[in-house]
């Protein structure tokens, strides 16, 4: 949830208690309607203007680039390296040097991409590897059969147009 959404939800939660304590029901609904409309207006403005989006909701801040820490950004965020390492460990990352790029999102989540050599293999990668292995084996088998065909004395009887037999011996 964005910051405006959180504020509106807390405000509406507080307002819903008012009718229970004896305040007017219609006043509560009126204020809740104003809050929801202001939330919709805020989100519309965020969609239309990038500057408003970063001012209202915030932007992602890079904390790691090419396996090195952005100490300046970490100090601005007041995020100790130990806490960043904790978040990386929770994501299954064992070393900061394995991370190509990491950002702390406006929602507080850590977004990251691993370096190419540290990324896990996808199904497509494995299927491509299997195809390459099979092609390699087929090529080896084809080479073996072609050499076996040359050495096989029965190929002449099976294939009368064999070109590997010397003309003087035919």
Give me the side-by-side strand order of the main sheet. Answer: 2-1-3-4
Q: Which range best describes the helical content: under 10%, 10-25%, 25-40%, 40-55%, 55-70% or over 70%?
A: 55-70%
Number of strands: 4
Average per-residue pLDDT, rounded, comes to 77
Number of helices: 7
Based on helices, strands and strand pairing, what is the structural class?
alpha+beta
User: Any low-confidence stretches, pLDDT <50, length ≥5?
Assistant: 144-148, 151-158
What features would you highlight for this structure?
alpha+beta; single chain; 4-stranded antiparallel sheet; about 170 residues
Task: Lay out the secondary structure.
Layout: H1 3-17, H2 25-48, H3 50-56, E1 61-65, E2 68-69, H4 71-77, H5 81-90, E3 99-104, E4 110-114, H6 123-151, H7 155-158
Antiparallel strand pairs: 1-2, 1-3, 3-4
Task: Give a written overview of the molecule.
The protein is elongated. The chain is 56% helix and 11% strand. It is of the alpha+beta class and 170 residues long. It is built from 7 helices and 4 strands. The protein has helices at residues 3-17, 25-48, 50-56, 71-77, 81-90, 123-151, 155-158, and strands at 61-65, 68-69, 99-104, 110-114. Residues 144-148 and 151-158 have low confidence and may be disordered.
